[in-house]
Amino acid sequence: MRCIYCDKQMKKITLSSLFLERDLLCIECRKMLKVKRQCFLIEDLKVESFYEYDGIFKSLLLQYKECCDEALKDVFLYSLKDYIRIRYAGYRILFVPSSVEKRRMRGFDHLELIFEDVRLPRIKGLQMKEDLIQEGKNAGERSRMKDNYFYEGEELNRVLIVDDVVTTGSSMLGVYRAIRGRARHVRALSLANKKQYFSF
Ligand SMILES: [Zn+2]
After folding, report:
1. Residue 174: which domain range?
2. Does 94 share its domain with 7?
3. What is the Å distance from ligand 1's center to 6 Cα?
């Protein structure tokens, strides 16, 4: 088996490794994409993130999302799935939605695939007022995301808002604002954050 990032030949599968989660990255690439857990606030929303938004993370995410390389889906939550399931037991996941146009282009829902094996229940029914694309917007356009979501579904107990990257925090804040009146407890998770936030 070859490393999905650098294409280096990896060690042969041993008997013990059959029982462990198999990493698609070689040891050297995994060292570069190392979990650096951060917790920060967006207004009063507590957010946890796992990676720095650096070279290897950016190129893997780009390859996965924009080049539609579905095989990369298990790279991002390698060794984190059990942690998330236990840490957020009792929560239901609410993904920050991608634009319809982007989803159609990719042919898959990128967050749904990454979190497929986390096996926490999902919340449906969050909608966008305008079909805005998150990526590549300027600050003014991004800030419109803060008011771009609405939710008219059932009352919610524990909600975990999930996104891939927090850039300005506008999308996450928009989703939070749309549901906070109908949810008892809200937390958020992002794979990486682009902005430096203070830890709490
Ligand atoms: Zn590698």
Report:
1. 35-193
2. no
3. 4
Instruction: Summarize pLDDT for 18-39 with one digit per residue, the tens.
Output: 677 889 999 999 999 989 999 9
Provide, rounded to the nearest whole percent, the portion of the chain with pLDDT above 90: 62
Do 94 and 4 sit in the same domain of this protein? Answer: no
Return the amino acid letter for 18.
Answer: L
User: Sheet harboring 156-166: ordered strands across?
Assistant: 38-42, 45-52, 183-193, 156-166, 92-95
Query: How many domains is the chain partitioned into structurally?
Result: 2
Ligand 1 centroid – CA 162 distance (Å): 27
Global model pTM greater than 0.85: yes
180 and 102 within one domain? yes
The 3-state DSSP class for residue 1 equals coil
130: domain CATH number is: 3.40.50
Residues 6 or more apart whose CB falls under 8 angstroms from that of 60 comprise: 5, 33, 72, 75, 76
Predicted pLDDT of residue 136: 56
Q: What is the pLDDT of residue 194?
A: 86
- Is residue 99 domain-resident? yes
Residues with CB under 5 A from ligand 1 (ion): 3, 5-6, 8, 26, 29
Counting as low any pLDDT under 70, the low residues of the chain are 13-18, 132-139, 142, 196-200
How far apart are alpha carbons 193 and 169 in whole angstroms?
9
Give the Å distances, CA to CA, from 70 to 67, 111, 112, 115, 190.
9, 11, 11, 13, 19
Q: Are residues 91 and 49 in the same domain?
A: yes
